[in-house]
Amino acid sequence: MQKTDDQWKRELTPEQYRVLREKGTEVPFSGTYNLLNDDGMYHCAGCGAVLFSSEGKFDAGCGWPSFDRVVNSDSVKLIEDRSQGMVRTEVVCASCGGHLGHLFDDGPTQTGKRFCINSTALEFNKTEL
Ligand code: FE
């Protein structure tokens, strides 16, 4: 999906634009989905692609929604991120290129993964599961 900057600015809230298109990070513990425990699916707020399920969600205590897996590994791209003096793995929506968050290898479940994702990059849909 290719959209111009102007299109994204029109369709997204300023905070969504800052996170998804400018690789920003929301203030920890500020997001809508940080502590949400309901059953359902989490979509990309930019393009609607299904990314995460409540089945993989856990509370990492870090202030951002955390998941131990993606629903379909093709739905995200992992990119080495050397910004801010760290080497991290950036998680990007494969469909629209939107920045979602980062992936760490210190997850508490069997997968060992912790997808640390900005709430504002996600759209929760309760009815689908
Ligand atoms: Fe997307």
From TrEMBL:
GO terms for biological process: protein repair; response to oxidative stress. It is an enzyme of class 1 (oxidoreductase). InterPro entries: Met_Sox_Rdtase_MsrB, Met_Sox_Rdtase_MsrB_dom, Mss4-like_sf. Its cofactor is Zn(2+). Belongs to the MsrB Met sulfoxide reductase family. It catalyses: L-methionyl-[protein] + [thioredoxin]-disulfide + H2O = L-methionyl-(R)-S-oxide-[protein] + [thioredoxin]-dithiol. Keywords: Metal-binding, Oxidoreductase, Zinc. Its EC number is 1.8.4.12. It comes from Candidatus Uhrbacteria bacterium CG10_big_fil_rev_8_21_14_0_10_48_16. One of its GO terms (cellular component) is cytoplasm. This is peptide-methionine (R)-S-oxide reductase. Gene3D superfamilies: Peptide methionine sulfoxide reductase. Pfam families: SelR.
